[in-house]
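Example 3.2
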Amino acid sequence: MQSDLILRIVGKLLIPFILLFALYVQFHGDFGPGGGFQAGVIFAAGMVFYALIFGLVNTRRVMPDWLVETLLACGVLVYAGVGLAGIFLGGNYLDYFVLSADPIHGQHRGIFWVEVGVAMTVCGVMLKIFYMFASRGHADGPPQQ
């Protein structure tokens, strides 16, 4: 597909909007449908779309394996960190109301950061799975360490 000019142009036009829509779903998740899981999958789908059009090697230049793995691990740490912050501030694990002086603001702050952690983790996992399957049996397999 790398020689298809129309597909490459349409991809260059659509991929930024797909990634922007992932951010919209992430930040709008508190007030409507969406959230971290959906945003992570949409972002990963945008990168998979990029890989299908421009090739796996180019995608690994944009989102290298170390970045995908770091994204995955940092998402888990953000999620766990919000839970531990609740414990350190006198509540239970993932008690959001202690994260601010006003319990309502604490709930919003906690949910936001948990959803950010979920989005990072889901995006990292989806891309890692795609990289593993896409590089299986190809000469341009995973980069050597």
